[in-house]
Amino acid sequence: MEKYVFTDSVGFLTTTISRILQQKLQARFKNTRLNTTPEQWRLLVLISNEGEMNQSQLAELQHKNRAAIKRLIDHLENKKLVTRNSGKDSRSYTISLTQEGKHVVQVFNKASHETVKEALSCFSEAEAKDLNKLLNKLLNNIN
């Protein structure tokens, strides 16, 4: 039986890469002085890309529970980055970006692009595309 090398495992590598990228992204975001976390930005960019949606849809797309998404929405609403809009049913509402939320997305998208570009600079363009394709294949397999 082959020796198990934990530091070569997919879980260790993806977790470590994710943590380091998160730290680099957080540092870039902090330099903008916009006081938004990468986790909050991910929700903002999702709404920006997909359009307004409800809490359940956001939870599903983020692979998070509704309570966690509600807390994020509450923070973003307090920062005046999103608004809750009443839906057809008084118990439901959709979340949309404010103008300030759209501005944050634009600034943070640039910071994110720079972070990813720096991280992928060790790959050729073809290798970076292959890596993305393989990671999506893995995600689809485990999801």
TrEMBL record:
A GO biological-process term: response to stress
PANTHER family found in the cross-reference section: HTH-TYPE TRANSCRIPTIONAL REPRESSOR YETL (PTHR33164:SF43), TRANSCRIPTIONAL REGULATOR, MARR FAMILY (PTHR33164)
Gene Ontology molecular function: DNA-binding transcription factor activity
InterPro entries named among the record's database cross-references: HTH_MarR-typ, MarR/SlyA-like, WH-like_DNA-bd_sf, WH_DNA-bd_sf
PROSITE patterns recorded: HTH_MARR_2 (PS50995)
Gene3D superfamilies in the record: Winged helix-like DNA-binding domain superfamily/Winged helix DNA-binding domain (1.10.10.10)
Protein name: Transcriptional regulator, MarR family
HTH marR-type domain: residues covered: 7-140
